[in-house]
Automatic annotation (TrEMBL):
It holds the Pfam family Iso_dh. Residues 8-329 form the Isopropylmalate dehydrogenase-like domain. GO terms for molecular function: 3-isopropylmalate dehydrogenase activity. It is an enzyme of class 1 (oxidoreductase). InterPro entries: IsoPropMal-DH-like_dom (IPR024084). The gene is leuB. Keywords: Oxidoreductase. Its EC number is 1.1.1.85. This is 3-isopropylmalate dehydrogenase. Belongs to the isocitrate and isopropylmalate dehydrogenases family.
Amino acid sequence: MGRDERDRIAVIPGDGIGQEVVPAAVEVLEAVGDFEFVEADAGDAVKAETGDALPQETYDLAAEADATLFGAAGETAADVILPLREAVDSFVNVRPAKAYPGVDALRPETDLVFLRENTEGVYSGHEDRLSEDLSTLTRVVTTSASERLAEFACDYVTDRADAGETPGFHVAHKANVMRETDGRFRDAVVGVADERGVDTDEVLMDAVATHLCLEPETFDVVVCPNLAGDVLSDLAAGLVGGLGLLPSANVGPDRALFEPVHGTAPDIAGDGVANPAATLFSAAMLLQYLGHDDAGERVREATEGVLADGPRTPDLGGDASTEDVTAAVVDRL
Ligand code: ATP
Ligand code: MG
């Protein structure tokens, strides 16, 4: 492949353990493919230097690269990640929560993915203080954003379905109470799925919380409005037992940004013992997004293999370093 045809990956380690786990992921990506990596700064450290947590060139890089791998930002997180998600025009947040052999989990049978609406709902930003006593929030739901999410969900489950199996997903909503907004969300999502020949199971979002705790194995792919997806995916994170393990993707129409769910972990930053698994799983999602399905699958399997057999970092009861774990994953590749 010629130089110009290589996928261009923006690499933004950020602060804290982002500086440790993102280079680990780059090392693993280099072991499975030929990519053009372009590194850029964001977060507390660059703000201290320049006064700006997200330099324009970093934003532009994310807005133009085929995919972005981001680590974490500390105090400046909101000033960094919100604009970065906007740079890729992300309309869906993909959050898998899976329990792995070798890792203590409350619910070892958990293996599901949330597809969370990423632009509207109660996170619309339309809040008002109307009087000393009264504040309001406008919940925004559009047919276009709901249908865009539904189209993505249909592609997602169709790609993953086994031959002969009818693809399907759960739709979480509260249309019995929020008849107008969640009614619109529900109608739009179910309408697209019906047209696409995809099965849908409707579930009330509060009931999802209970079912998740009691029988997480009944869920595979759950399509959610913004706030519900935020809360329920954190609940699922608790079930699988480890912030250090959860990857995520912010997907837009033409590009996407991948990041571990965890933050900068200031308590262990600089010690070289951060668990790189969440970022390695994020890198596996990045590979699949770019169409390198095989390489993505290999990275995921190698990372799972190391979780099961060791070496393990201290958060999982081991005494290995980030580098030891990364080297073991590269070895398996
Ligand atoms: P931030 O404000 O950046 O989110 P935080 O103090 O909330 O920082 P998190 O990164 O959210 O820290 O992590 C919460 C806890 O989980 C910390 O004790 C941290 O050490 C641990 N943790 C998070 N990610 C990892 C990881 N990759 N490896 C090991 N431990 C981790
Ligand atoms: Mg945190």
